[in-house]
Design goal:
single chain, globular
Length: about 170
């Protein structure tokens, strides 16, 4: 849509290929974040439902995220990044705009035992999506909300952001 819009209409497979090529080009490792890394970055030290608090009201969410509650449907698709307030770590559009692919395999329920830096399910075929999108209800923009999709799925509500591994 434009140079300031998030990447969209990409599958998990497309994101993996992009990360591989960028890693080769720059001689550093880029990858999709794990689901745990994504949520940690989204929360930015908060424990509330959203990184801006627990208020899901249209006026409040409209300051931080593009979603179905505050979106002009005549202009479907993502919006340029940075038009809404960032989280406490200055990360923009962690909620809303486009769902973001994560590295992990998707399962409906997390393991019950305590984990540190989990890397997702051991089996399955779908991949994790986080963040909610421009066409999602406000509830899907919660820091803990999650979904899953086939790694070949693409549409104008799916995108990604990368993590760069420090050597």
């Amino acid at each position: 849509k434009g140079p300031k819009n998030p990447v969209e209409n990409v599958s998990w497979d497309d994101a993996q290929e992009f990360a591989r090529k960028l890693s080769q080009k720059e001689n550093v490792t880029y990858r999709l974040p794990t689901e745990a890394e994504w949520e940690y970055a989204c929360r930015a030290g908060t424990t509330t439902e959203f990184y801006w608090g627990d208020d899901v009201g249209v006026a409040q969410i409209g300051r931080y995220a593009w979603c179905a509650g505050n979106y002009d449907w005549r202009e479907s698709g993502s919006k340029p990044v940075g038009q809404k307030k960032p989280n406490a770590w200055e990360l923009y559009d962690m909620s809303g705009n486009v769902w973001e692919w994560c590295q992990d395999l998707y399962v409906d329920k997390y393991p019950t035992e305590s984990q540190t830096d989990p890397t997702g399910a051991a089996g399955g075929s779908d991949r994790v999506l986080r963040g909610g999108g421009w066409n999602s209800y406000a509830f899907s923009c919660r820091s803990a909300d999650r979904s899953g999709g086939s790694p070949s799925r693409r549409n104008d509500g799916l995108g990604f952001r990368l993590v760069r591994t420090i050597p």
